[in-house]
């Protein structure tokens, strides 16, 4: 596993606040605290707070935000990412106490062997805390193993060892193999995590109760804390593991805990949050057996925006946030109408150059305004639509007159491009996004079901702090480039009117209803699944985005997994006009996202050939006719039609909906059977 940035620090379970770097510096044994590193984007989407990260010798879980504070105190000032529009959305989800978006505690090194940033890192706990000896199969808690991490430049050598391992004797040996412990010499053997866990739909995670399991819920009749062994013929990957008590010789297979029948044998949830080292007072939901590497063990819940030129209102809100951060309420109240005093107090903290006295006093008044009540916030959250994050971006792209007046501070630079004569006629606008900045913020995570598979219910979000009221959240600031394509709205509306009454659309809608009912979380409220079902134009634009990503990856110099989609596809409502467009972009936390290979494809002669080639490839699939005629029927609940890995599917990093809501038949009129045939938006491609 290769990791390139953001040192991770590790500490054992403790009721005290974590400060592993300080403890390492004060240790007489010079024990090293750092155990690995990861990119900021990886810590945002793959190995964030509450997830499980596999290291070479054991696994860890990044700790909650409370334990990040000792790390931040190592710096006189805490860096922040200013983006009022995103902060407002985070406050809507987590409450008005959130006042900052902070980057991960990392500092790049100027030279290979320099020590810049060595006093920073993300605290993490060892989890799972039950380990298995690789030599004798001994299964026990963390305290029964010794930890070694002494090499300053090799954190990958950090390991847990069974210090008095006897090896596999006659009872534990295998036929035809030498018995490591036959001569009775104890040795140090490496240990690995015991990979079985318990999880519930409320986001709690716990160790598997091996002792109670092997004794069928009763104490061991031979010893209060017996030694256990976990023998696994499948090397930890499946149901072949058997737990054995060494004192009373009772045995039980882990396969009994799997499936619906296994759930009835498992204990109720204890409400444990390992990343917080805390328990919720009440839960009581049923638990499910979970393997440590399961894909549904952790789902990040994030919000992201493309930074646009700010309005005067957003500038005022940003300054108000700074005032609340750097001044107490008492001082702010006392000097709110005295801009000269405010400037003196904030002289070395906030840059007020270019801010007029009127703007400063207006921001002070906003900073002192009472936040909305909890009832008002909850009501706004219930009515909130994620599309609201996209509307300002769409509105800006509809005003080419603003492009020449772009503000460099926003990091956005776009250019209206001419459309080629051979470009499909329904693509009526092309915009080259020469530079862009994307800000992503973490608001929590879920387990078992991701948020958009259920009700987006706020209570399903696992809290990031022990009290559930953070004052800041982690965020990343990425830069990149892209291409924006807009479809003709009249053509889209006319095509959509033909799709809605079709039998294919009814089949997709029914499949979504079945999928919604079967995957609905225990903690979510009953709602109408049709309100979560995207309109035909979304399927159209989503399918177009995927075939373009696959085609662009062969020409732009970026890998397909580095390209991502941002879809602007919603019908008209009283509050906002209809949208039909897509942005294919690449972003990274460094210069790798701005190499120019993608935006170069916006040139008319290159783009028109690329779009035509993408549509031509989409007209045929190596899995046809099976793929081209795939329609959910007879109780099937998959959320795609004529789409598969051979023609439309993209990587997880590219698709915002996990390869759902895709169908090539909405792009092109394919030769399918009558009840599945619908008019493709682009008709047919000559020569296909």
From TrEMBL:
Biased composition (Basic residues): 176-187
Region Disordered, annotated ranges: 1-35, 168-187
MrfA-like Zn-binding domain: residues covered: 544-648
InterPro entries: DrmB (IPR047721), MZB (IPR018973)
Pfam family, one: MZB
Domain of life assignment: Bacteria
Coiled coil (UniProt feature): none
Protein name in UniProt: MrfA-like Zn-binding domain-containing protein
Organism: Virgisporangium aliadipatigenens
């Amino acid at each position: 596993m290769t990791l390139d940035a953001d040192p991770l620090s590790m500490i054992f379970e403790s009721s005290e606040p974590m400060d592993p770097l300080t403890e390492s510096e004060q240790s007489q044994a010079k024990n090293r605290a750092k155990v690995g590193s990861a990119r900021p984007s990886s810590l945002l989407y793959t190995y964030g707070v509450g997830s499980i990260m596999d290291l070479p010798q054991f696994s860890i879980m990044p700790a909650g935000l409370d334990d990040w504070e000792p790390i931040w105190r190592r710096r006189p000032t805490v860096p922040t990412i200013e983006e009022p529009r995103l902060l407002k959305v985070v406050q809507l989800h987590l409450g008005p106490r959130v006042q900052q978006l902070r980057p991960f505690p990392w500092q790049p090194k100027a030279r290979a062997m320099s020590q810049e940033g060595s006093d920073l890192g993300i605290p993490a706990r060892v989890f799972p805390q039950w380990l298995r000896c690789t030599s004798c199969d001994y299964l026990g808690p963390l305290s029964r193993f010794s930890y070694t991490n002494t090499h300053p430049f090799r954190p990958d050598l950090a390991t847990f060892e069974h210090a008095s391992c006897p090896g596999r004797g006659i009872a534990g040996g295998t036929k035809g193999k030498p018995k490591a412990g036959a001569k009775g010499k104890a040795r140090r053997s490496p240990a690995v995590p015991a990979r079985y866990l318990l999880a519930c739909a409320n986001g709690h995670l716990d160790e598997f109760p091996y002792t109670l399991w092997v004794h069928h819920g009763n104490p061991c009749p031979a010893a209060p804390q017996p030694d256990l062994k976990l023998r696994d013929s499948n090397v930890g990957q499946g149901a072949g593991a058997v737990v054995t008590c060494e004192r009373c010789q009772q045995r039980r297979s882990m396969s009994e805990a799997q499936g619906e029948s296994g759930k009835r044998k498992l204990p109720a949830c204890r409400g444990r949050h390992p990343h917080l080292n805390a328990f919720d007072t009440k839960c009581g939901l049923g638990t499910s057996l979970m393997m440590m590497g399961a894909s549904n063990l952790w789902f990040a819940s994030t919000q992201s925006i493309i930074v646009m030129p700010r309005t005067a209102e957003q500038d005022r809100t940003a300054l108000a946030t700074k005032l609340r951060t750097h001044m107490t309420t008492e001082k702010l109240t006392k000097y709110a109408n005295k801009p000269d005093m405010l400037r003196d107090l904030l002289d070395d903290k906030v840059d007020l150059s270019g801010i007029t006295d009127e703007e400063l006093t207006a921001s002070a008044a906003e900073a002192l305004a009472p936040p909305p009540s909890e009832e008002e916030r909850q009501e706004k959250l219930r009515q909130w639509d994620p599309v609201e994050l996209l509307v300002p971006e769409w509105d800006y792209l509809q005003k080419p007159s603003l492009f020449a007046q772009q503000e460099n501070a926003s990091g956005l630079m776009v250019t209206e491009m001419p459309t080629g004569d051979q470009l499909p006629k329904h693509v009526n606008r092309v915009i080259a996004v020469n530079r862009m900045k994307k800000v992503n913020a973490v608001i929590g995570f879920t387990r078992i079901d991701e948020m958009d598979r259920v009700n987006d219910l706020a209570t399903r979000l696992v809290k990031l702090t022990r009290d559930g009221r953070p004052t800041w959240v982690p965020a990343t600031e990425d830069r990149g480039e892209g291409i924006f394509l807009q479809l003709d709205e009249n053509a889209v509306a006319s095509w959509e009117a033909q799709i809605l009454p079709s039998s294919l659309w009814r089949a997709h809608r029914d499949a979504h209803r079945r999928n919604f009912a079967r995957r609905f979380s225990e903690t979510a409220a009953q709602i109408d699944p049709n309100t979560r079902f995207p309109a035909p134009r979304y399927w159209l634009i989503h399918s177009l985005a995927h075939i373009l990503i696959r085609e662009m990856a062969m020409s732009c110099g970026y890998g397909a997994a580095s390209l991502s989609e941002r879809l602007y596809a919603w019908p008209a409502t009283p509050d906002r006009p209809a949208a039909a467009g897509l942005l294919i972009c690449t972003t990274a936390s460094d210069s790798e996202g701005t190499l120019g290979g993608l935006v170069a494809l916006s040139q008319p002669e290159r783009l028109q050939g690329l779009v035509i080639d993408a549509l031509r490839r989409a007209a045929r699939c190596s899995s046809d006719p099976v793929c081209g005629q795939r329609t959910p029927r007879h109780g099937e609940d998959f959320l795609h039609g004529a789409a598969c890995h051979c023609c439309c599917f993209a990587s997880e990093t590219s698709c915002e909906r996990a390869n759902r809501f895709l169908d090539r038949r909405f792009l092109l009129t394919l030769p399918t059977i009558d009840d599945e045939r619908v008019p493709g938006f682009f008709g047919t491609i000559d020569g296909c």
